[in-house]
Amino acid sequence: MISGSMVALVTPMTNSGEIDWPALKRLIDFHIEQGTNAIVAVGTTGESATLSVSEHCMVIKHVVDQVNGAIPVIAGTGANSPTEAIELTDVARVAGVDACLLVTPYYNKPTQEGLYQFHKLIAKSVAIPQILYNVPGRTACDMVNDTVDRLASIDNIIGIKDATGDIERGRELIARCADRIAIYSGDDPTAAELMLAGGKGDISVTANVAPKLMSQLCAAAIAGDTVETQRINDQLMPVHNNLFLESNPIPVKWALHKMGFVTEGIRLPLTVFNQEQQPILSQAMQQAGII
User: Is residue 1 very low, low, confident or very high in pLDDT (cuts 50, 70, 90)?
Assistant: First the structure.
């Protein structure tokens, strides 16, 4: 089972918006050195919505090749078209990823039966471990626990990234499904609480800028060490919160730029982090000992 701190990796770009391959290599090396437990490539934080299909596939292959088996690689391969999701998932399988992360179909607003059939089709079509991804705040689509429970019985559906931030809902998921799939947090401010309740890790934005601390936090929480978990989480909470001052990944890309890893490059319709907000995030990073 993949567990621990799984970074939702940014896709670094030049100031003109092209993928910055040397910067991507630096980030991957940084995460391996700092103890990140898995890399999630080309998810929402990786600007999957504005990468072309060929770019999407190239980033996946580049990450797999660069990681070279050091830690697991999870590829974001979701789409609101089942055909595209199947194609991307199969490309990721061939590239050698360890699992795929499939977001609920955005904009379509499917029924719960539609969500079940959609994810069942992808799971049956591509023989690779798959992780469901529920983030209704961005997709306008909410996969309820009953639907997750049904999907958890499909052999190669191995987990869910629950980015609702609703701890009671997460506790219910753990009670109902943890014997069949891993429950991962996708919400940094509430991730520690979910892991202490039985979650197996955090697919994390904060891990981009604080990989060692996030790895330590996840290890403590999964082990049930409440005191150490609380200590690290208190240290990181200002960062957790302020990385969402604007739409992700706007702030985290700026933070990585400030740390010297990437340029400020980002693709429209997202724009560079507002200058008025920058001191707030900078102060949070200083408080956490990141810079």
Answer: confident
